[in-house]
TrEMBL record:
PANTHER family: FERRIC UPTAKE REGULATION PROTEIN, ZINC UPTAKE REGULATION PROTEIN. This is Fur family transcriptional regulator. Binds 1 zinc ion per subunit. Binds 1 Mn(2+) or Fe(2+) ion per subunit. It comes from the Bacteria. Belongs to the Fur family. One of its GO terms (molecular function) is transcription cis-regulatory region binding. Keywords: DNA-binding, Iron, Metal-binding, Repressor, Transcription, Transcription regulation, Zinc. Zn(2+) binds at C93, C96, C132, C135. The keyword Aminoacyl-tRNA synthetase does not apply.
Amino acid sequence: MSWSAEKLLREKGLRVTPQRLAVLELFLSESGFHWSADQIRNRVLPGIPGLARGTTYKVLEELVNTGICEELATPEGLSLYGIRLKPHQHFVCRNCHRWFDVDVSGVEELHISTASPAAVIDNVAVTFHGLCADCRKTDDQ
Ligand SMILES: [Zn+2]
Ligand SMILES: [Zn+2]
């Protein structure tokens, strides 16, 4: 299914601005990847010269709050942003530190045996760690 950035923004009740469009179009054109706010800003800058860092963060926050995007906290203390049009889990490469979206079956069936009966779980995040295909190739040489 192809998503139009403009349609997505409208659907989520966000006004269509050039900044929001540019950031969202980047996510849509390269879905499955996750970037820091600065990486996103650098990629969007050619189309939106003068885009401030603060504005970039604000746009990302709005996209996360409306559920279009996800924010991932990395062990290195960074925030990475990715598009989240459908539920997915992540694979992290221990060499290049890239995060990849992966489909995992059976996540819905996971449960905690020690959870307090009053606890309500609204999200399960499973992260796989290993060596990505690109880094494996370099390793073999
Ligand atoms: Zn890698
Ligand atoms: Zn993701």
